[in-house]
Amino acid sequence: MLAIGLTVLVAQLVAIVAIVVNGVTGLVTSLFQAALLVTPAIVMSMAQGILFISIVLLGDLWFGLAGIIWALTRTEVLVVLAGVGMWLASRGRIDRGPAAGSDERAEAALEQATVRRGARPGGAGAAGGASAPQGRVPLRATPLRSRASSA
């Protein structure tokens, strides 16, 4: 009984490392999402769940209670290693950023958002002069360059 208690105590102390590793995993997943790298973000998110369940089941089968106790720590280390590997492989694409962006595409998206919010494109609602539907604030139809330079 003392051995189980000692194993749990050591696992809890090592769990502090697992918490830090989990934070790095979340950071890497967020980086992939922000860089519009869908596949690595999905792999990171799914790997945590799939690996954890697998490691818990196999850990119980092979090592008993100790395998279950150490499952979270093992899972987090494996997922962060996979994430760092994918990050290293994707650094070039992350540095380039989303390639599909352009001023024209941004203006079209702004115009489309204005139409969805109830204002008419090119009309008074798009310029922010007339009233918008009650409870809604009209979008400003200023070019992106002027917004960036004023910020």
Task: Report the uncertain regions.
Answer: 125-129
Round the mean pLDDT to the nearest integer and report it: 78
Following the backbone from N to C, one meets helices and strands in this order, namely: HHHHHHH
Largest sheet: none
Gyration radius from CA atoms, angstroms: 25 Å
Enumerate how many helices there are, as a single number. Answer: 7
How is this structure best described in words?
This protein has 151 residues and is an all-alpha fold. It is built from seven helices and no strands.
Keyphrases for this structure?
0% strand; 2 domains; mainly alpha; 151 residues; elongated
Provide a concise account of the structure shown:
This protein has 151 residues and is mostly helical. The protein has seven helices and no strands.
Topology (elements, then pairings):
Blueprint: H1 2-34, H2 38-63, H3 65-69, H4 71-96, H5 103-116, H6 124-127, H7 144-150
Helix pairs in contact: 1-2, 1-4, 2-4
